[in-house]
Each structure stands twice: as structure tokens, then as C-alpha cells.
């Protein structure tokens, strides 16, 4: 799970991108944070799928 600081930073960069745009450094940081977020999301989703038990 990503910590609150990283999630807040992701949201801040998304809002800033819509409002004023991002610098190249901020774009790189945003992409890195998004990749981290997606990796955590995929792992959590995979764990949920593995716990599903099909019953007939």
C-alpha cells in the first residue's frame, strides 16, 4: 500500500497538470508515482482474485 504522502503527491500533481501544467521533472515524478501506484493496485487485485472461490 502506498503511504498517504505519495497519494497526496499523486493527487497534487494531477491537479497541477490540469491547472497550469507540469515541468519535465514533475512529469517524471508523476510517471514514477503512477507506476508505483499501479504495481500496488495490481498486486492487491491479484490477491483478491486468488481468494475467490467458485462454488457450484
UniProtKB/TrEMBL annotation:
Gene3D superfamilies: Helix hairpin bin (1.10.287.540). Pfam families: DUF896. The keyword Ion transport does not apply. Keywords: Cytoplasm. It is found in: Cytoplasm. Coiled coil: none annotated. The keyword Ligase does not apply. InterPro entries: DUF896. GO terms for cellular component: cytoplasm. Belongs to the UPF0291 family. HAMAP family: UPF0291 (MF_01103). This is UPF0291 protein AN619_07080. It comes from Thermotalea metallivorans. The lineage of its organism: Bacteria, Bacillati, Bacillota, Clostridia, Peptostreptococcales.
